[in-house]
Automatic annotation (TrEMBL), chain A:
It comes from the Bacteria. Gene3D superfamilies: 3.30.70.20. This is Ferredoxin.
Amino acid sequence: MNLRAPDPRSAADPTVLLHIDWTKCDGRGLCTEILPELLARDEWGYPLSYGYGSNVPVPDRLLDAATDAVSLCPRQALTLIDR
Amino acid sequence: MSRAPDTTLFPPVQAPAGTTRLTAARAADYGTHQTTFGPLPAHTDSAALLAALRDSGLEGRGGAGFPAWRKLAAVPARERARRRRVVVIGNAAEGEPLSQKDATLLLRSPHLVIDGLLTVAGALGAHSVYLYAQASVLEAVGRALAERADAAGIELREAAESFISGEASAVVNALAGREPVPQDRTVRLTESGLGGRPTLLHNVETLAHIALIARFGAAWFRSVGTKGDPGTRLVTVGSDGHPSTVLEVAGGSRIGDVLRFTGVDTGTLSAVLVGGYHGAWLPAYALEARLDRADLAGFGANPGAGILMGLGERRCPITVAAAVATYLAGETAGQCGPCVNGLPAMAAVLRRLARGDRDPGLPGEVRRLAAIVTGRGSCNHPDGTARFVLSTLTVFADDVAAHLAGHCRKDHR
C-alpha cells in the first residue's frame, strides 16, 4: 500500500481511511486487537468504530498499525483509502 | 411561395400542459407515443444534456433522489469523450413491495423510457444499453422494443425478485451473471461498473423525464412543481382498505391532497409512511406537508420513490412496524455481519414490544441496535431499516407507551 506523505494543510485531520468491506468481514477480530484505539467489537464480533461506519479515519500515529491490520486480515476485508 | 412543411408524418406537437406528462399518451403503442410527444430529437450531445438536466433540477426517482445531472457528470470526462465505453442501465427492479409506479410506467408509457435510454446512450456514445425490469412487464416491454428500429440495441433483462434487487451494484452484479446482491464499493459505478466499464444507472421514471426534457426543455420541466421539487412525479398511494393507485402529481404537492384525491379519508389516518419500508412516518397532524425535501426533512423522510401509505388510526402501528422490520430482516442479502445479525435482533425486540412484553428497556434496545447497524453495511439496507424503525418509535411514542403500560386498544392484526 502506497501512502502519501501527510498533507500539512490537514495535519490534524486524518487523510487516510480504513475501509471495511462488510461483505468479506467475518468478525475474526484481528483488526480490533491491532487497532484497539480505533476499533472495538460489536456483540457479534464485528469491528465497531463509534461515529464511523465503513470508512474509519486513521490518525497518522496509527498508520503503521492500520497497514498491519490490512495485510494481516484473514478475510482481506480491509483497505486503506487515501482521501 | 414555399411549400408548407409536411406535417402528416410528424404533426407539430405541443408540450404536455398541466401535470399529465408521463401519462399523457392514451395508449402504450409507438404510434400514439409519437403523436402525443412528437419525435425524439435526433441527437443530444453530452454537454447539452448535462446543461439541460442541471437547469431542470430533475432528481432521480429511484429513491435516493440524487440529481440526474450529477450522475451524468460523474462519468469521467475522458470516458464521455471516448465513444463506446459507457454502459447505460434503465432500472425498473422496483423491489419495494409498496411501489408500483415503475411497472405502471413501463406498461403505460414504455416508449418514454426507451426514449430516455436512447437519449442518454446517444449522448454518451454508449457501449451497451440495458433495461432491467420485473418479470410481470417483460412481455409488454419486449413488444414496445420490437415496435421500433432504434431500440434494437437495448437488452431487456429480467430483474431479480428481492427488496434490494434494485440497488445499483446489485443490478450490475445481476447483469454480469452474478448473485443479484450489492457489492462493496470504494469507487463509483460511474467510474467502474459492469465489466469494469463506467456505468450510468437511472431509474426508469428518471429516464422518462429525461426523454421529455430532451424534447421540451428545462424551463418547461420546471413550469410544474415547486422550486424544491420541480416537474411531476409518479406516486404509489395506498392505505388500509384502499388498493394502491399510481398517480402523476406535481412535485411538492400536499400529501393530504394526494391521498384524498385517491379517495382516502385522511381524517381516519394516524400517519402516512413516506418513501416505503426504508422511509419514515409522517404523523397525521403534518399531512398538509408538501411532498418535497424541505417539508419532509424534519421527519427524516424524502420524496424518494414516491410511496405514500396511509395507516388507519385503528391499526396498531407497533404491530405493523414489527411485521415490516421482520420482513426487512429477512431481505438482508446475507453478506454483511451487522445487517445479518442486527436486523433480526432489532425486529425481534420490536415484536416483543408489539406482543405486549412490558419490559421498559425495549425501546432503548431497539434504538441501540438501530445505531449499531447504521452505516455498517455495503449497501443502505441496514440504514434504511433503522430509519424506519426509529421513525416508528418517535412518531408513535404514545403507542409505545401504551404497549409498555399494557393498554394498547388498537387492532393488532
